[in-house]
Design a protein that fits this description.
mainly alpha, 5 helices, coiled coil, signal
Length: about 110
């Protein structure tokens, strides 16, 4: 009975681990982490973009990054939000989200509505 319970717990942990690994598979380096943080800031600033997958990936990757990288990522996110508030940059930033940021955002999001 104990063996079956242990196997069930181990299987549950394996499934949970593979889900988080899939969510953060696009974020491999510190540069990717910074780019993903910028994409999150743009997505939040532009609005109407689901960032759930990106939030999970950034959260899981945060603990494997140096404090300086995490701080710089927060700065990039804030800068991207400020840029997204600029009406003159909206088209350019929307194109960035639809292009480069799609590696980090959920692929099911239809960017044609932007």
């Amino acid at each position: 009975m104990k063996f079956a319970a242990i196997m069930l717990v181990a299987a549950g942990l394996a499934v949970a681990g593979s889900a988080s690994a899939a969510a953060s598979s696009a974020i491999k380096s510190d540069v990717d982490y910074l780019k993903a943080s910028r994409c999150k800031g743009l997505a939040q600033g532009l609005g109407g973009i689901d960032t759930a997958a990106l939030d999970a990936a950034l959260k899981s990757e945060r603990f494997s990054r140096a404090d300086a990288i995490v701080d710089r990522a927060a700065e990039e996110m804030a800068r991207a939000k400020r840029q997204a508030a600029n009406a003159n940059l909206k088209d350019q930033l929307s194109a960035e989200v639809a292009g480069a940021c799609m590696a980090y955002l959920s692929p099911s999001k239809d960017m044609a509505s932007r």
